[in-house]
User: What shape does this take?
Amino acid sequence: MQSLTLPLLVILGLTISGYFLAKTRALQVAGGDIRKLVSLPKQHALNTVLATAIPPVAAILLFSVYNRLTEGTGSWLFTLVVIALAVTGFALSLIGIKVQTRARTFAERWILGLLIFASTIAILTTVGIVFSMLFETFNFFEQYDWKHFFFSTSWSPNFRGDSDLGIIPLLWGTLYISLIALAFAVPIGLFAAIYLSEYAGSRMRSVAKPAIEILAGIPTIVYGLFALITVGPFLRDYFASPMGLGQSASSVMTAGLVMGIMLIPFVSSLSDDIINAVPQAMRDGSFGLGATKSETIRQVVIPAALPGIVGAVLLAASRAIGETMIVVLGAGAAARLSMNPFEAMTTVTVKIVSQLTGDTDFASPETLVAFALGLTLFVITLGLNVFALYIVRKYREQYE
Amino acid sequence: MKTSLLTTDARTRKRNAAEARFKAYGLGAIIVAMFALVILLTSVLGNGLSAFKQTFISLEVALPEEKLDKSGVRDLEVMSKVTTIGYAPILRNALLATLEAQGIETTLSNKDIGNMISKEAAATVRNRVLANPDLVGQTVQFDLLASGRIDGYFKGRVTMESAALDANTSPEALEIAQALADAGIMQTKFNWNFFVWPDASDQRPEAAGIGVAILGSLYMMLVVLFLALPIGVASSIYLEEFAPKNRWTDIIEVNISNLAAVPSIVFGILGLAIFINFMEFNQSSPLVGGLVLTLMTLPTIIISTRAALKSVPPSIRDAALGVGASKMQSVFHHVLPLAAPGILTGTIIGLAQALGETAPLLLIGMVAFVREYPAAFTPESGLFGEASTALPVQVYNWTQRADPGFVERASGAIITLLVFLLIMNAVAIYLRRRFERRW
Assistant: This one.
């Protein structure tokens, strides 16, 4: 990092002096008469500033990535190139100042370049996600048989080696919990949305809608703590123990219920949008035939909104599958293939956290498996999202 | 069969009943949702409000020279050789003397009486003495932390029955505590230190605070603000105002809406692989946390900024172009200022999301036990490079501890976090109401 100080200082010095020099020089070439200039002096100054600063800073970014790739450190050559870039931009833009120079256009080209760069960061993020996980997953499958990973029904990592790393029990836990969460959230969210958009008066709406939206703004760690200290012990003492189904406070049911609460606002706000998009004329037609309100909703509105609602449910499912903190605190850590909802089970996300926190050794399959799990999670949720967005978008066009 | 308009027939009754049932289901759903919200909030508040209060013992502590300063010349080097273990008996003696003065009799051993004072108290006294060596030889009034169990007794967490089964305390100790409280020597009062103190070790929940966590969260929010806002606004401007409609911009748009739905833990894996393993930034530093959260918040900010830009009517742009502004000038001089309130609102909501995010931070090592306040800049570790923790991660951390006192701390930290979120969202709503323009 030490080698960066000098180039950065040079860039800073050149930019500041470039600003004032360009302004003075622009006035000078116009012979002091600002009206002769095609571009204002401040636009010449802006052009000089951008031309001096952008190329070397871009070079620094590129070089630091290159250095990490080649395990090299900063060299004098690199410093020289950066400073040379700054000086070149500085000199060229200053020499280029003439009466006819269209500095505004040049400066705006630099700015446009910056804007384009900013918009590619989203792409770079996705590329980063995919590559970082692909790379380590590849390393993992070199040490561990992929058939075993996808089809083994036992998960017992052992840091002395010889572990069983089968994803099936984790996927089972994930799906079971998500299923319970959806079974709780979808009816409630849907009915709440129907009531709010079709029945509730404006006063009721003004209270209930923000209240439900508050649920959406609460961080998941709060839900996790709620599962851990309230819901878990409650379910154990009043349901699991009396029924003889288990003694564990963390269970599939605990995590599923709390996650269901988290998903209510998600389902209800999405369905609300979709129900509101059904044209009023369809309702009026149904009323005109003598249908009651609930008959209209059940037989006209819901069928018309069904694709959108399915999309909303899929989005909620992808949320549930990728949720971490609630399951870390509420579901337990034991990988198990069981039907009993009051037993502790574990999920893909819980295992990603447990394999990557604490002492990690990036050469052992026990750590690398987390990347394979992450990639699996990413692929599943991405698939669900793309499919859901496709359905929702297709449906929206139908009535527009 | 005769029918009348005045009497409803069976089928109508059935349909009306179905109507009423359906409506009741809807109302029921809303009640369940509201009930869940109320239970959630009462559970957190009920568990956490007591974290803001703390039990203190005010003791007259004699600081004997022969124990604390063998040199007798107040040489700091010699004095600092006396560790907290050396201070503990002094505090115990002070408490015993107080008990005697108050006429409180007990069968409890002296060691158990000493355990009523927090282990942290010895460190407090030691720091005070080392900061002001002249105290040695005097008798000084100290407000010292009571141990976690005694504190729990005054908050209702520990009862006589539970104390009888507890190896760390006993009913006799609680009786002494009650007697001291009656005499006004032991007091439970508001505890500002909760917001200032760093985390404490497993044995002393009474001394744990969220100072480091708040500082770490603040640093991360600064990183997010200074990176996500400019990048988000710049890329929205490009996509909304300049981008040609082609396959490349289509890819960017689909990509952004998908990024918004990627599970947060995946961003944690990205941060671990790219920023820590590849770029070799410091583990558990607010810089890496901030970078990860920036990437996570970017889609939120881009989506809301684009909505804000879209809501500025085209006539504004046309007017600017008409008087000779370039496209870039029309955007930066006219459209952007008019869209600013919407952008700001979206940014605050994005920041609020980032503030509450936990899962990705676990993966980049922010679960580490950190007692040192992280500096914003040091020459060795760079900008925001010192190990730190964050509010939601601190909550997670405390839920993993054995002592039940930490549950209270975790809930207290959650309340603090929720208050921050409430303030941020309220500001966002206020800004929207105050500055939003309808065209």
Remarks:
- The longest helix of chain A spans residues 103-143.
- The domain at 155-398 of chain A is CATH 1.10.3720.10 (MetI-like fold).
